[in-house]
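Entry for the shared binder. Reason: the reviewer on the internal report wants the predicted structure included alongside the sequence.
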Amino acid sequence: MKRQVSSVAAVILSASLAPAAVQTKVVEYECDGTKLKGFLAYDDAIKGKRPGVLVFPEWWGLNEYAKTRAKQLAELGYVAFAADLYGDGKVIDVAHPQDALAMSKTLRDNVKLWRGRAAAGLGQLTAQPNVDPTKIAAIGYCLGGSTALHLAYTGADLKAVATFHAGLPVATAEEAKAVKAKILVCNGAADTYVPEKSVNQFRAALESGGVKPEIVNYDGVVHSFTSPDADKVGNPLMKYDKTADEDSWKRMKELFLATLGK
């Protein structure tokens, strides 16, 4: 009998010590009448409030890649919220880049709408009970990186912004002065979608406002270098690069350690 009790106790103790898995859920919200569906990820083994990271997806929409990045951030101890920029969690297959171009154009042509949806995502993240709203960062890929920068230009209370193969909107003098975040830009030096001229204009505009972005250009690397699915598009100007992907993620973590304390 004693052995049986000990065995049961051991099972209970083992279960209580087992690490909790990352929890995920769909979060429905709204922005100016448009219904949005975001994706929340966090580790419920961590108690109390912790930093939050907003994830803005590529022009394909809130696909599995963006959700995977959110889960990776949750594994690092953050609460991550992948925002919906198109509405209803819409996802476009990589086989149809023209559809993605058309959807992203609706945002690029209406910056107020674009920034509004970015801010709505931020509001959802900071409202989570396990998030410390004073320690928030934003990351984004391609269109999502541009989105994170636009959010920073509004003066949003962000500690850090990291972009990956993102279009680089040029800030006005007023917007540059409003930026509170430390900015990391990871770019492919051979990315024809984000040429050197665009990088230089972006840098100059921010520096004129007292912001000194860290810009990393990877030699020989083209667009979409963090996404393995880039190779499925069939466009030689979009290609995954393992070295640049891993290095840019490492740099992001270092930025977060310095600005979020984790």
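Summary line for the report: The first helix runs from residue 2 to 17.
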